[in-house]
Amino acid sequence: MEHTQEERPAERAETTDGPAERPKDSGTALELLVHGVGGATPQDMLNDPRTVRIAGDDVAAIFRRADDVRAERPPAGHRDGPVPEAYVWCNLTSGNGTRALWLLLLPFMVVNLAHWMRPAARGRRRLTRLYGLLVRLAGLSLTVLLVAAACQVALDLAAWQCAGTQACADRHSWLGFLSPEASDDGWWSEPGRRLGLAALVPTALTGLLWYLSLRTWSAYESQQPMTHETEPEDGGPTALSRPGFWYGRRLVARLRAAHTAAGLLTVAFALALAAARHDRAPGGSAALALLGPLVQAALLAAAAVVVCVVCRRGRTDRRLDDALDAHLLRLLPLAALLLLALTLVYAGWRRPGWDSAGRLPGDMTFGAIALVQGLLVIVLAGVAHALHRSAPDRRAAMRGLAGPAVVMLACALGGVMSGGVAQRVSDWLDGTGTSIPGPPVVLTWQAAVIPPLLVLILGLCCWLARRAWHIAREERAAVAREFPGETGDPARTRRIANARAMASLTDRGPRILAVTSAATLLLGAGALVGALATDRTPGEAAQGTYAVVHGAAETAQALGSWLIGLGFILFVTWGRRAYKDASARRTIGILWDVGTFWPRAAHPFAPPCYAERAVPDLTWRIETWTRTTGGRLVLSGHSQGSVLAAAAAWQLTPSTRRRVALLTYGSPLERLYGRWFPAHFGPDALGALHQDVDCWRNLHRRTDPIGGPVRLPGDCGPEVDRPPLKDPLAYGRTGSHPLPAPILGHSDYQADPAFAEERRRLLARLRPDVPAPRCTGDPDDGARTGTEAPTA
């Protein structure tokens, strides 16, 4: 640990890419290992039980073997093979138990992903901005939906329906003081005051989301990227190379203020609409009937301001934008809070003769949210299609429509979570099922969508199983050709073929999402129409030709409500287990590893972006180490670690990028990120990265369900990709494999001899101060003979 204290000042001394003289090569080569999803320990990554943390903290750190701590210092600097270093970042996503609470933010995370799924485009700047604007508006609608669901539970079901009904209030003693029968002059028995007290629940939820967003930003995303005197070029094929890409402080703060205000205004609207409905009725107060429209007009004006703030220009990543809209951040939530207080006073005013009967006007609210979300998805699909046509990419998922499909999925998740909470609370409060009206009709009809949607998903699973069976049958013949004379074990052949077939199903993901999102949109539209028809003609629905349809709808609604309740219980149970169980928390962490790589650009309440900490960590380490030692560096990334490695390489100065080699294995860079995020990881972006780094090699297996080829031509051979590695390494028992070799799939790439072989070839190309020759002929000739690149 003494070494750590001595080395850090030297690392901090160089922070710019100035004209300093290049240091003399120490003869040291470094392999910087970055693990993938699910996390890893430094002991496993370095294959040594004795490891030392040389930089970082308990959240993310760099480790070395204890024997390699002073590897750069003579005489230890000259050695065979590179010095391995492990960057461990798994605690960014699966650390303590509070990560389990992030499950509640799942719809926000999904809609934030849609922002980055924009198709690649050429010369369509206005459409690009419109795409981002529509996704931000969809994110705002999810915030309103979540808070509206909290209002439905606290204000409508608990304070209005249950507390206003004697039978329900008697079953729940904690609501007794709110009941009109509690006492003749009970202060809290007034409906408006009951609603005002219950409004504390959604208000507290909004405050909690604001606090979590602020706290997680400070803990994860406040790390400033490394600045350079000569910033990396910002006109390249991907925005990931821009200086401010991994520092979205200004946008996140602005959206946080807008969404917080939107949540508070949603609570205020729920109160104002309930009170205004009574004031407009016969017998209402004339003075309050005049005050009600003024309050609603003020709330509408504030809501318009919130929408305008969200519609303002999005991310500014061409420079490091650390300025804040200080007045906006303070005034917007404060103004919304003051309007909420004014609405509380207006709703809590004494109104003789006001009884809580029926439901609050929730159908209108949830119906309007569903309609707005559907329209946003349709318009977004049109914009995405126009962008894709400007620069067609045959590998892009769903021909550029992945973003709208994911927005539809986020809205569906939000609807299911809202309906599940409302249905469970209603069943809990209403023991007999007849004392209170229950949730709004819209939520009931949305529950009816779930059974047919599950039937559709079951059909898609059957199609996938049939497809996997056909592929496995074809792969058995391929296995026999690859292992001639050895395939005498049918069970062994079948396991290998099945592993390949299951891995190939990943490429069917776009089709599954396309069918599911389209069906969800159509079924959601049908549910909205059905809710409106039921609300207008409740007595005629079960008569005449509508009897069969009405009966089927009631059956689907009952089954859907039960399924929503079951799903909500499972959701809470999973979150509770993850809060206590580290292994379950790691499973959830895998979800965040994939979903929270991207910065928060569409929703400020989404889980924090770990890459805004990890990418600067890697960039600082690479820049400072290469400047200090002048040595050779191989950036080695597995799975999601290869995505972090590519992102860090884009952030390096051009001179440093030319001195770094990239080794990826089990990499989703093209197979997943290139297809789903074509504007940022498309062929142009990956091709430019390959031209910038000294050399790049990629390893993959046919049994890997995540990693795949990057499909780029290369100057180290015919392609960047090495031909698919054998998996298993041996079919039967051999001298080098006396026991049956396992089918590795996505793991243990370093166990393959090809890994060490490719690493040697990359290091041979990185000879310091010597122009690297272009490889000719067989790309594996140099590696097989053990020769290095010729020197001058």
UniProtKB/TrEMBL annotation:
Sorted UniProt keywords: Membrane, Transmembrane, Transmembrane helix
Entry's transmembrane regions: 130-155, 195-214, 257-276, 288-310, 331-349, 369-388, 400-422, 442-465, 512-533, 559-576
Keyword Transferase set for record: no
Region (Disordered): 1-28, 766-792
Protein name: Integral membrane protein
Protein source organism: Streptomyces pratens
Sequence ranges of Basic and acidic residues compositional bias: 1-25
